[in-house]
Amino acid sequence: MSGLSGIVRKAERTQRDNPKHTYMKRYLIIGFSILSLNNSFCQKGMLQFRQEGEFKIVQFTDMHLQNSVSESVFELVKNIVDVEKPDLVVITGDICVQDTVDDLLLRLANRFAEKKIHWVSVFGNHDGENGPPRKTLSAIYRSLPYNLNSTTSGIKGETNFILPVAGKKGKHQALLYFFDSNAYNPLKDRVKGTYGWIDFSQIHWYRNQSAAFTKKNKGVPVPSLAFFHIPLPEYQMLWEEDSASCIGTKHEEVFCPMINSGLYASMLECGDIMGTFVGHDHVNDYIGIRDGIALAYGRFSGAKNTYGHLTPGARVIVLKEGKREFDTWIRERGGNILYSTQIHFNKEQAIKN
To answer: Who is most buried in 5, 33, 192, 306, counting CB within 10 A?
Structure first.
């Protein structure tokens, strides 16, 4: 790591000469430097169901990392990963909220590398708000140990990609879709609301990918999950129409975009998505089913530098090979398990706790 530190110091010494360009250059250099360190890891293999036919995901969200609170968040991550032993960690946005992110991100990635656990992250609205811009930050993510992020060119956003999960015979038994839900309303002069939405180009990409996987699977949609940061308007509709069937809590407004860009309708039409998993609203953690799709929040995973009174934790999701079903629960700091739920999509959809 001494070489990386030297590069950072050199960039800082020249910042007086051209602050703007050096600022961008600094993060590009760090990204490529970490990439060279990362080459020693053999972590790019295909994700696969376990022998017993399960695949476990831990979803962290809204860490809001800053130097002053990072240790408590890293401890939370370590403890939950140690207990749950996931096959994949998914972070649904808002990882860092300070200008300098390189050290924090590398320390976070090392928590997963130590256990040889792959991880991915989608962007939240605060990612890229401080520090490096989103495109540079995306490249840094991809360079980090055990990270499986990729990016799709030609569509809006930086964290749009798919990870297949293979079964015992190597066939894709599940798909994990990841979307950049973008940051803020790009049409403020015409449209109410603060937050952005998943763009038509991203939806078109999803529909094409879903159709291709379905065709390859002899016309049967592959059981899939989707992860992004900002909830869809359907999250609010679900609570308003059928809160009694939801499991978990809602302590704040659903801060979704005011524009419904049609992702949910496309998911219904494609027929593959079993559930969507988001963050953004720190004191909402409910899950419910609407029209055959489970809409779920994760559990806020941050510290005292941001709002929220819920005990920090994570959502755990367990996929079942060859089945349209999954189990899920909240694991809190300290070890408590809340809202253990079974989601089944067979002849009749069901949600049981």
So the answer is: 33
